[in-house]
Write a structure and sequence with these properties.
Strand 7, helix 8 and strand 8 form a beta-alpha-beta unit. By secondary structure, this protein is of the alpha/beta class. It contains eleven helices and ten strands. It folds into two domains: 195 residues, Rossmann fold; 84 residues, no CATH class. It binds adenosine-5'-triphosphate (ATP). Probable component of a branched-chain amino-acid transport system.
């Protein structure tokens, strides 16, 4: 699927309008309980409507599944949330702030990230180098050593902190022994672990996972799911697209079902899989 080259600048996003102190208090409570809220999201590509009024929210500390038949609009929704696409209309709120149309890096800096597949050129770099590429906004990227006293020390300090964090993440995902290997030589499952480890370099609050288990063998799948549950216990929130219904049933407490660009049903895994509309949407398939 092709992507637009990034959303609008952060400054272009509209501020959340709050009419009364009571509304502000309500909004703050909602934002605390549901860090991510999608309201009436639409996205069209020429004559094609990919997302058609999708609305849902993701509860704090949850592992929420986003499912739906092929072409339901899941990836486009992810791309709108993370700023890869600018929505045609609708609102996306993160922690109560309107982030609609913000650039991907601005959204990531706020603590909302998605895992990215290792791009074509990155297999030529080592696992550790891939990890070090992830964080943005370091001192050395914006300023010159010559004009700012002490900047070199600050940059060195930041690099050391990043390196330490990179090793911590590699150890957490049990791929530290692969640090010096080229990313291109990793197995599909190891690559998925690296993608997760890399996404977590920026210490995000909410992580969007797009089929994190695709092509992963059962042993690594278990390891990856264990890590996701551990991170969740430490306070992270996850929204994940997954085609494997067993994974959804066994791991998510809340499931959102998309169909033809909007939300068809949501609830516990048991509720959605026994919903006739959901079964019909999958054409009587194996939900
Ligand atoms: N860049 C694009 N240009 C044109 N049409 C697009 C684009 N991206 C998505 N679409 C169309 O929008 C619809 C929704 O696609 P999307 O990839 O979001 O669905 P999905 O639920 O993620 O599907 P899958 O499970 O197969 O990955 C599809 O009809 C798709 O062909």
């Amino acid at each position: 699927m092709s992507s637009e080259p990034g959303g609008a600048d952060a400054d272009d996003a509209t501020d959340t309008a709050v009419d009364t102190p009571a509304a502000a208090a309500e909004g703050a409570r909602d934002a605390a309980e549901h860090p991510l809220v999608v309201e009436g999201l639409h996205k069209t590509f020429g004559g094609i409507t990919a997302v058609d009024g999708a609305s849902f929210s993701v509860a704090e500390g949850s592992l929420t599944g986003l499912i739906g038949p092929n072409g339901a609009g899941k990836s486009t929704t992810f791309n709108c949330i993370t700023g890869v696409h600018t929505p045609t209309s609708g609102r996306i709120r993160f922690r109560g702030d309107d982030i609609t149309g913000m650039a991907p890096h601005a959204i990531a800096q706020r603590g909302l990230v998605r895992t990215f597949q290792i791009a074509r050129e990155l297999p030529e770099m080592t696992v550790l180098e891939n990890m070090m590429l992830a964080p943005k906004g370091q001192a050395g990227e914006r300023l010159s050593y010559a004009v700012v006293p002490g900047l070199r020390d600050r940059v060195v300090e930041q690099e050391e902190e990043l390196l330490e964090r990179a090793w911590q993440q590699l150890e957490f995902f049990e791929i530290d022994h692969l640090a010096e290997e080229y990313a291109g030589t990793l197995s599909g499952g190891q690559r998925k672990l690296l993608e997760m480890a890399r996404a977590l370099m920026t210490d995000p609050e909410v992580v969007l996972l797009d089929e994190p288990l695709a092509g992963v063998n059962p042993t690594l799948e278990e390891k990856l799911l264990d890590r996701i549950h551990e991170l969740r216990e430490m306070g992270n929130t996850f929204l994940f697209v997954e085609h494997d219904m067993d994974v959804i049933m066994n791991n998510c407490e809340h499931v959102i079902v998309m169909h033809q660009g909007s939300v068809l049903a949501e609830g516990t895994p048991e509720q959605v899989t026994s919903d006739e509309r959901v079964v019909e949407a999958y054409l009587g398939g194996d939900v």
